[in-house]
Give the backbone structure.
Amino acid sequence: MKGMRTRRKGLLGPPVRDISIREGMGLGELTEEMGRSGGFVARKVGEAADLLEAMERDGRCLKFLSFPACIVATGCRGAIRTMVERKMVDVIVTTCGTLDHDLARSWRSYYHGSFDADDAKLHRAGIHRIGNVFVPVENYGLILEERIQPILTELWEGGRRSMSVRELAWELGRRAGGDSILWWAWKKKVPVYVPGIFDGAVGSQLWLFWQNHRDFRLKEFEDQQELADLVFNAKRSGALMVGGGISKHHVLWWNQFRGGLDYAVYITTAPEWDGSLSGARTREAISWGKVRERARHITIEGDATVLLPLLVGALLERL
């Protein structure tokens, strides 16, 4: 036993304790308990909350937020909007679908549905399905065309022949409602970068407008230059990355040019074994120089619509 005890040195962490749930306990306290006492993903959530708090308190850290469009179709949109409203994030990188859902929900409603619905029946009824969220067809593509074409015409008639995607996002945002992520991004001057702008309904509306306005241009190189200036001037950088794909990769890609992220929190449901970027844990990014070797980083496996509101609520309480 003596030799076994010697070999255990440095291998055992603190003892596992039960999470203490108390009446009136807030999310900040709960996540602290999860970090100290929990196991499995609960402990990761607690550690992520600590890491995000450190990132928020680091006054010299440029804070990135990346996320996919699907969660904007859910109530999780409110958690993202809160982060922007409270200036808990400096830069957003996302997909075209985020613009689609954020604007569409500012102008029309999405509805609760079921994962088990008959999709052929939904198609005949003119209802799109996003998981267990239902969207009438007129509340998505049709309303976006109805609202976006006049906005583009207004910009054109005002002399705007070209703009960056970040400028476009703000122009759309300032014409949306106060429940919109984009409205708050415009209000708080948080840049929104969409590297895949044509992969969605807003991109299709841009293409449609271009059919009769062939001098209209998107200055996508300008977006890239702004990102370059941001990362090269940052003393430190950190990112909360929700889901994978182009949003996550674009954050990692640009931060590799400054030696990698100093803080990284990643929420994913994707497996690692298929080799995808979405499944790649933050530790894999170290091999590419996209996360620093000595960075504070963690990957949390789980549903972002549960984890993100929990983390944002905890951060608000702690800060």
